[in-house]
Amino acid sequence: MSTVQDASNVSSLFGAGASKTAKGSTEETQNRFLSLLVAQMKNQDPLNPLDNAQVTSQMAQLSTVQGIENMNSSLEALVASMGTNQMAQAANLIGRGVLVPGDTLRPNEVEGVMGFDLETPADKVTVTITDAAGATVRTLDLGSREEGINLVAWDGLDDGGDAVPDAAYRFKIEVVTDGKPVATTALHLSMVNSVSQGSQGVQLNLAGQEKASYADIRQIF
Fold this sequence. Notes:
Layout: H1 7-20, H2 26-42, H3 52-91, E1 97-101, E2 104-105, E3 113-118, E4 122-130, E5 136-145, E6 148-153, E7 169-177, E8 180-182, E9 185-198, E10 201-206, E11 211-213, E12 219-220
């Protein structure tokens, strides 16, 4: 009497079929598995019947594949819903100022406000503002500062007390604690002109053609 492959061979066939139909639907994969299983049961050798444990294991694997696909579909729907909600929330920020990571500022933009985030209290904080050529325009000695988000307003004057041109500037934050320099995150305050949604999620289109992620917002004004 001719026999068909044992349960382990059927598992290999199912694995091959699954790899070829990975892009197909779960229903197609399930039908292929059941067809192989029924054919095997019809043609099994009475002297060497199917191993129930192996058949049960294969069916459990199929259920796992179905569960993973269903979970992926649910997660995709959840992500899409969150993106829609974030887009609606971000739209309410148009025309408002947001504090996001960055080191640029303009003296007439949102009152020249800049910020930084300290993980621990600092003994000394110094802000250095430079122009497009990298030359120092203004140095601000802020003394000691507490942990958390700190804001600094620049009056648009240089170290000599003269008003600087309305242009783009950069600022650098230097923090010292216990005589040692400490890293910190520079924060840039800018107006939100519009919002958009792409592959990286909801983005804020800021003044000066800058962009920031919705998730980067540290403070709203």
